[in-house]
């Protein structure tokens, strides 16, 4: 047999049909659904008189525009249009008989946090969702990617996706991370290196000692932002860390099935002599805590750097950088650590897991945030929230002056009432710093949870290593 | 789906790189449960000021580009979220074809599902098309999908590549789901085999 990459192996195990021109029908093991990108798909099914092909493989949860304040089961808390979307998901879940976690359920949360937490996401699976950050699930050695609403409808109706194969790219992070440097810094540093289009046409496999040493939470953070690097998906070969995390989850296999699954999962790695179309190697020792300065996730610099000038770039990026700097209200040459912020957001499918909250709480313990700072923690799921309360993290956040919210996407994309006002500047643990992403005219700096906590204390973008 | 055969129309130049889906259709317009009606909000934050008045400089607000059916765009067009609202908004506005040096993957797929043809061209060709588009409404460009050719207003012809299955679907206005359901026996056979090999799924 010819050597294969992990991606090749998962792909080959899921081709249900191959046409002469190489276009494949890829079988989908898990289909995750949320309220924003699904109503038109269910409507399409109804209009064509079609049913959901595999309701037991379809899992729905509202997350994008649910409020994250207490009392939200009361629909009056939501604006009309949000209420309609959430109500549509409620009734579609019922009508088509799919698994569903409503806002009143403690297991509700961001779809990419709920899937792994409940054991829906397993190694070797194909996972799709009408959401670009589906890449998150790649952390389990699953082939996971975002799809559009027409494809959501296609998967609902057929449990397959029309796909042609991507190319293989290996991103290796050698060595050990320095103190204060996290999975978020790795993933941002990679995008800084490759650019937001660097992964276009590829599925990335992350490997190397620094990746192997990450917890599942950290691996999910890395894979989450594969999409910001333009890749169709990012994945990490499963290992003991993965199996340990999966074991005992509500929907993970049990007993003899667990053993059978484990046997197969252990074959899921890239063969030594597999072919890579592109290889990138970074040294973990060279990665510093980073922040973004502009309005593209590729606008990444170490916190010790200064704001660049448009002339530092080439081609179309010169104009884009000029526009970014104007939007961000920044002057070239300003040290990044002098940029004052007024809002801190800790949460999202990138950094809304328990380990993220622990990292932030560790910096905040016994301290108070800067006067006048608006700071919020939005746990990624109801279960993350409950665990953080049990571990005493919630108290640390509250005593420091943070708002302690209910689970949802919240200020990651500001579809719910959590938004920035024009000109407000936010240190955010989410994944996108696009113009208007966190509210019209709002300015976003992406960073790790520990860096966000440090910024909340000092009121400026801050090198977390100075507070450790 | 509408059939896409041959299109002759005005092309609007948008040289900015990394035009993301948040720019194409900001999130406040994602709360619809329909596919139509998003055209007025296409590029909303670039197109209108805080009071909702048109910003005259923005390309699609200029009289010569109001009827644009083709966009010539900077690199990495459509990056960002998976929202299909982006092609829905383009379509509703009347855009049927976008040409760039590269597209984000999900956006690229979404275009085909909605009768929009995304065309990848090398930088020199995009530069030439951009220059042609700069000439305004009299410079009509022709996109011939059957022949796989772009013809500029002064008769320059540039061939382009397109996946044959997608071309077939666009030209015939075919619905993917119907086509896939014809392969139901293959899907069922796969499911039966997978149930043996990976019963825990
Ligand atoms: S947290 Fe943000 S990036 Fe993640 S699914 Fe929600 S909106 Fe998308």
Describe the structure.
The complex is a heterodimer of chains A (468) and B (201). With 468 residues, chain A is α/β, with parallel strands linked by helices. Chain A contains 16 helices and 19 strands. In chain A, the strands form 5 sheets. Chain A has a 5-stranded parallel β-sheet with strand order 5-4-3-6-7, sandwiched between helices. In chain A, a hairpin with a 5-residue loop joins strand 1 and strand 2. Chain A is globular and about 55 Å long. The model of chain A has no long low-confidence stretch (mean pLDDT 96). With 201 residues, chain B is an alpha/beta fold. A 7-stranded mixed β-sheet of chain B has the order 4-3-2-1-5-6-7. The longest helix of chain B has 14 residues, at 184-197. In chain B, strand 2 (70-73), helix 3 and strand 3 form a beta-alpha-beta unit. Chain B is globular, with a radius of gyration of 19 Å. Chain B is 33% helix and 16% strand. Chain B contains 8 helices and 7 strands. Chain B has helices at 21-24, 44-47, 85-93, 105-113, 123-133, 164-172, 176-181, 184-197; strands at residues 6-14, 70-73, 97-100, 117-120, 140-144, 149-151, 157-159. The chains are: A alpha/beta (468), B alpha/beta (201). At the A-B interface, helix 2, helix 3, helix 5, helix 10 and helix 11 of A face helix 4, helix 7 and helix 8 of B. The structure holds iron/sulfur cluster. The site of iron/sulfur cluster (SF4) has 13 residues of chain A, from helix 12.
């Amino acid at each position: 047999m010819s050597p294969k990459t992990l991606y090749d192996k998962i792909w080959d195990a899921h081709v249900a049909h191959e046409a002469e021109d190489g276009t494949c029908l890829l079988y989908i093991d898990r289909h995750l659904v949320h309220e924003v990108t699904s109503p038109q798909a269910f409507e399409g099914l109804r209009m064509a008189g079609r049913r959901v092909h595999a309701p037991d493989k379809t899992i729905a949860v509202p997350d994008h525009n649910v409020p994250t304040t207490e009392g939200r089961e009361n629909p009056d808390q939501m604006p009309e249009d949000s209420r309609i979307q959430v109500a549509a998901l409620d009734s579609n879940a019922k009508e088509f008989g799919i698994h569903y976690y409503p806002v009143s359920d403690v297991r509700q949360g961001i779809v990419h946090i709920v899937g792994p937490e409940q054991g829906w996401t397993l190694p070797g699976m194909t996972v799709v969702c009408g959401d670009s950050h589906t890449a998150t699930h790649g952390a389990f050695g699953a082939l996971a990617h975002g799809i559009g609403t027409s494809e959501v409808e296609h998967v609902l109706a057929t449990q397959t996706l029309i796909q042609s194969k991507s190319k293989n790219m290996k991103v290796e992070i050698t060595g050990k991370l320095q103190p204060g440097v996290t999975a978020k810094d790795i993933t941002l540093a990679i995008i800084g290196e490759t650019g937001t289009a660097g992964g276009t046409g590829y599925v990335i496999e992350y490997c190397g000692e620094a990746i192997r040493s990450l917890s599942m939470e950290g691996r999910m953070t890395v894979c989450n932002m594969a999409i910001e690097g333009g890749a169709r998906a990012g994945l990490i070969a499963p290992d003991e860390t993965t199996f340990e995390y999966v074991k005992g989850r509500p929907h993970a296999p049990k007993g003899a099935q667990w053993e059978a699954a484990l046997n197969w999962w252990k074959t899921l790695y890239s063969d030594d002599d597999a072919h890579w179309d592109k290889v990138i190697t970074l040294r973990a020792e060279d990665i510093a805590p980073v922040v973004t300065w502009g309005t593209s996730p590729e606008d990444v610099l170490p916190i010790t750097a200064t704001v660049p000038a448009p002339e530092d770039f080439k081609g179309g990026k010169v104009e884009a950088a000029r526009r970014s700097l104007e939007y961000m209200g920044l002057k070239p040459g300003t040290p990044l650590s002098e940029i004052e912020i007024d809002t801190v957001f800790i949460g999202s499918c990138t950094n809304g897991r328990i380990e993220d909250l622990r990292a932030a709480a560790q910096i905040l313990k016994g301290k108070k945030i800067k006067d006048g700072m608006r700071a919020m923690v939005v746990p990624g799921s109801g279960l993350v929230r409950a665990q953080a309360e049990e571990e005493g993290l919630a108290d640390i956040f509250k005593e420091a002056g943070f708002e302690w919210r209910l689970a949802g996407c919240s200020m990651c994309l500001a579809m719910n009432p959590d938004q920035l006002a024009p000109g407000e500047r936010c240190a955010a643990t989410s994944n996108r710093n696009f113009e208007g992403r966190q509210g019209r005219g709002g300015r976003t700096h992406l960073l790790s949870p520990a860096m966000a906590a440090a910024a909340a204390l000092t009121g400026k973008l801050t090198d977390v290593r100075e507070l450790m | 789906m509408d059939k896409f055969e041959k299109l002759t129309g005005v092309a609007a130049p948008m040289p900015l790189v990394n035009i993301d889906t948040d720019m194409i259709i900001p999130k406040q317009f994602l709360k619809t449960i329909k596919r139509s009606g998003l055209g007025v909000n296409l590029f909303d934050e670039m197109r209108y000021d805080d009071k909702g008045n048109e910003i005259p400089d923005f390309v699609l607000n200029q009289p010569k580009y109001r009827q644009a059916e083709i966009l010539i765009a900077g690199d990495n067009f459509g990056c960002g979220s998976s929202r299909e609202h982006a092609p829905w908004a383009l379509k509703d506005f009347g855009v049927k074809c976008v040409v760039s040096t590269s597209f984000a993957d999900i956006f690229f797929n979404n275009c085909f599902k909605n009768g929009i043809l995304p065309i990848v061209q090398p930088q020199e060709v995009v530069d030439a098309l951009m220059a042609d588009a700069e000439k305004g409404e009299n410079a009509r460009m022709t996109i011939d999908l059957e022949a796989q050719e772009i013809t500029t207003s002064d008769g320059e012809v540039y061939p382009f590549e397109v996946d044959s299955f997608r071309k077939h679907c666009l030209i015939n206005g075919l619905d993917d789901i119907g086509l896939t359901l014809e392969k139901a026996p293959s899907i069922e056979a796969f499911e039966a085999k997978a149930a043996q090999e990976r019963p825990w799924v």
